[in-house]
User: Fold YbjN domain-containing protein from Patulibacter brassicae.
Amino acid sequence: MRPAAGHRPGHPPPGEHDGAAAAVEEALRSAGVAAHRPAPGEWGLTVPCAGLPLHVGLALRGGLLRAQAEACAPGRVDPGWLLHRNRRDLRLVRFATSAAGAVWVQGDLPADGVRAAAVDELLGRLLDAAAAVRAVAAHA
Assistant:
């Protein structure tokens, strides 16, 4: 089966997650956050976090609203601390590392039925986790 014209593999067909896209737009508008939209169902925003800009990506993919941001450069945080925080303290988001060792914060919500309040909570928890890992890195 061929993909629909203009459809990118791994991305929802146009219109599939209009409700989730509207919830993201509403959450960003309510928070007063400017975003660029590189493609349908994708947003990029920059917010202050622990004295530095945090570049956050949001995307509707695979039935999920995914959020991610690189929070810390490689080698700045003990991997054991990240694992402990993932298991003990974090909800909706988690730490991950790239092959190079950079620390990312990632989170997902089911796209079906997502509301602006849930998007706001996801972004708030992502920002809190990024601030926490940046604080640890600053004292390393």
